[in-house]
Sequence to fold (233 residues):
Amino acid sequence: MKDRVLTTQWVSYELRRIGLKGLVTPALTLAIFACIATLMVIAGADDRDVARVLTAVLEVGLPLSASVVAAAVVVDPVIDLHFTFATRFRTTVFRRLSLLIAWTTLVAILWATALRYAGLWSVPKPFLLGQLGWFAPLVWFVVAGALLAIVFRSRTVSISVLGGLWVFENVFYSFIVAREPLRPFFLFATTYTPDAPYWLGNRLALIAVAVVMAVVLAWVVRNGESLTVGGDV
Fold:
């Protein structure tokens, strides 16, 4: 019972630290793409194109928006206060990232399920397997956003780097998919090449890279005191 109470307390606290803006961000991202899809319908777009846009937001929109929140919640302006807590800062970082991923995953699953029952799910894979389409880049972006924010002591740098990568991969996707060494690390394979034979390997590779980045992040934040020196939050 005591452990359950403690778990409830830290979950509640960390959700407050993520904040209402962070929790609303996934829904806001979906709403923006829903507006785009609505305009497409009004303009007479094909149902398949509308479905593609509504599905693509899970891979193209949610992971990037989650990385913005991740960068914000790990670069804490009051990080010094963590050293008065019994909980290590590394534990705090991974708690926040885990909650962020869990919350965004819940929103994504509800959206994907709604699309499926509305006949608008456009991923040509079994439904459960198709969830890797957005989950792999979600984990990758969240961990990368946190790692960059911690390393550079700046969420601005983190957002700028990932935003630049997002633009590059969306604009030059044909360049990436044409080169076999780059295919395992293409972030948006579900949107642009869902039928490609390397799709599953690509998704698993992204998750593996995210795990490696998480290990690096754990090592970087092992000594929390060093993070209080310098940096622009």
